[in-house]
Every structure is written in structure tokens, then in C-alpha cells.
Amino acid sequence: MNDIAKAPNPSRQSKRALVLIFSIMTMDVVGISLLSPVAPQIVLQFSDQAVMVTMVTVLYALGQFLATPIIGKLGDRYGRRPVLLLSLVGQSVGYFIFGLGGSLWILFLGRLIGGITAGNLSTASAYIADVTPVNERSKNFALIGTAWSLGLILGPALGGLFGQITLETPAFVASFFAILNVALSIFLLPESLPKPNRDTSRLTLRDYNPILSIFDMARKPGLGILLLVNALFSFAFDGASSTIALFVIEKFNAITWQISLLLIVGGVSIALTNTFLVPWFIPRIGEKKALVSGLYGLSVTYVGTFFAPILWLIYPIQMLSSVMNSLIFPSMTTLSANCVKFQEIGILMGVTSAVGSLMNVFGPLWGGVVYDKVMIGSPFWMGAIILIFTGFMMSRVPVKRMIIDEPIS
User: Fold this and answer.
1) Rounded to a whole number, what is the distance in angstroms from the first to the last CA of the chain?
2) Quick check: 279 and 139 in contact, CB under 8 A?
3) How far apart are CA 321 and CA 319, in angstroms?
4) pLDDT higher at 65 or 81
5) 12-187+204-395 adopts what CATH topology?
6) 246 vs 257: CA distance, rounded Å
């Protein structure tokens, strides 16, 4: 039997906390995206294989996959704030090591360390769920997309700018942003999860196994299909995204500032979509229809990217692609969050992040291999096929809204 639930009551403190967590998330994404314009060029100094370029993403995602579920569990048990602090410190160390560079293994080590401690965004998602009424989750989860969009505007711009000094400089700047987030969290961020609402179950070896955590969540009514949709979408998206910079470099001879501009226009599109379209569009058509529309629309943009004859056409296609992606994330996150109890939000966000991380291992690996072995740009048309199948599957599945436990204020 489902337990009856009400959402947490909105308060001035909750709104202040949302503003602060949004600022922290934005700076975090700025740090991540600072490397985007320069990372492929740094790796190309040591190897000319596409799969080596994608390994920077793969190792980060592998560390994230192994660590994120337990980080989510620890957040449910001990609170969001200490877990967030630990994650941010690890991110700073990972960026610093990547900046030192000098060889492929040092670059890979830096990204692996960053991935192992990359529980900050999933913890931030759980934080938002803690302080948000259930009927406002779709709107507030869009804040995550907005943070990503602003980060994807500022990060590539700063990455292109600092990359003119040296290719490694953006990594050190990213390390500084992570430390700044640590300071904000220590002095200004309140804890979002009161002790009575925390998970008091004993930690077991099972909790340290991300695969078992995923299967535990997948058994919950309605959640298994959403995790599968998330996996297929992430696989196609990560395979294409991890090769887009290499694609425009090799097909159009793009240089650093053109790659930065490509990422910036995508970020602007996400910001505008999350600000003006998502709050109006998703409540009117529902999360399921918005999710399906986003999947189909993204597949069209991937085909357009593959066939684009000149570089300037990639920019409007990338903007439309970002609009579609902006519909997918808040819809999928809201549908998933409505399938679990309030006390399980943290582990759900950890599992969702773990699924995304696992696909961020296999997606870029697949993207790099088919890029090298099949043809330039093949992750785009192949990814479009996967997205069409995923959208069709999602359109045929009934999604019911679960009622979750009432949190203690």
C-alpha cells in the first residue's frame, strides 16, 4: 500500500537555500565545461585516436558510476551538506592533477579522481527535492538544467579565453571554482535534510554495489522503465556529445574559439528554454509527452548534425538540440522522483546518476569506436536511431504518479 504524502512547506529559508544551491551548481558546471574546448586538444598532443579523446569522459564516468550510489546513500543517512563538501574537495583535486598533465596516464588519473568524487550534482538534486513541494518539482528540477545552461555559456567562454594562455590553464581555473564552492557550502549553505527524515537503516556491502542499487530501484513500480529510458537516452547522447568537438575539428577544421562558441550557443538555448519554455510547456502537456517529444526532436537534430554541409549550420542545429535536451531532463527526473518515498530521494538521485555515469562509460567508448571504425560522425546517425526507438518505447508505456511519504518538517 502506498503511503500518503505531502510535500515540504515552502519557506523563505528554503527559497534562499535554492538560490544558493543553484549558484553552487552553476559554478560547478562552469568548472566541468571549462575543459570542454581544450580537453580534446590536450589529449591529441599524446594520441590521435578518437577513442583516447573519449577516454577522458569514460574514466570520469567510471569513477562516478562506482561511487555515486553510495554517495547518495550517505546523503540520505548523514545529510546533504557534508557529502557535498567532500565531493567538491575531490573535484578540485581532480582538476588540479589534470592541469599538471604531462602524459596520458596523469590526465586519466585526474579525471578518474574527479569522477569518484562527482556526487555533487546528484546531491544537489536531492537537496532540491528536500526543500521543494511535490507539485513544484518539475519547475525546480528545471533549475538544474538552468545551472547547466549558464555553466555551459560561461564555462566554454572562459575555457576558450584561458586556453589562449595555455591549454592547461582552464583546469586550474576549474579547481579554483570547486574550492570557492567549498567555501560557500561551509559558511552559507544550511542542511536540507532534518535528522528525523534521514535513513537510519544499516549500511551493508550491498549498498556499495552500484549494480545492485540500480536493480533495487528498478524493481519499484514504474521506475524500471524510466531507468531504461534514461540509460538509452544517455548512451546515445554521451556517444554523440563526446565526439562533437572532434567532428567539427576534422570535418570543418574548427579551432578553439569556434568550439567554444558551439558550446556557448547550446548553453544559451538551454537557459532560454528552462526559463521560458519548460515552466509553461511541461505542466500543460505533462512530463511523459514532454519526454517523448524531446527524444524524437533530439533524434532529428542528430541527423541534421551529421548531414550539415558547412560549419555555420551546426550552430542553429546545436541550439535546437539543446532545446530538446532541456525537455528531457526535468521530465524524466520528475517522473522518477514521483516513484519513490521521500526518504529514498537521495539514493534515487544517486542511482539515476549512476545509470547516467555507466552510459557515460559505454556511450563515449561506443562513440569513439564507431567514429574510428565506421565513419566520421557515425555516433550521430546511430544515436538518432536509438533515440527514435526510446521515444517510441516511452510513448507506449503508461506512467502513473506515485504518492510518497510525508516528510517531517
Assistant:
1) 23
2) yes
3) 5
4) 81
5) Growth Hormone; Chain: A; (1.20.1250)
6) 14
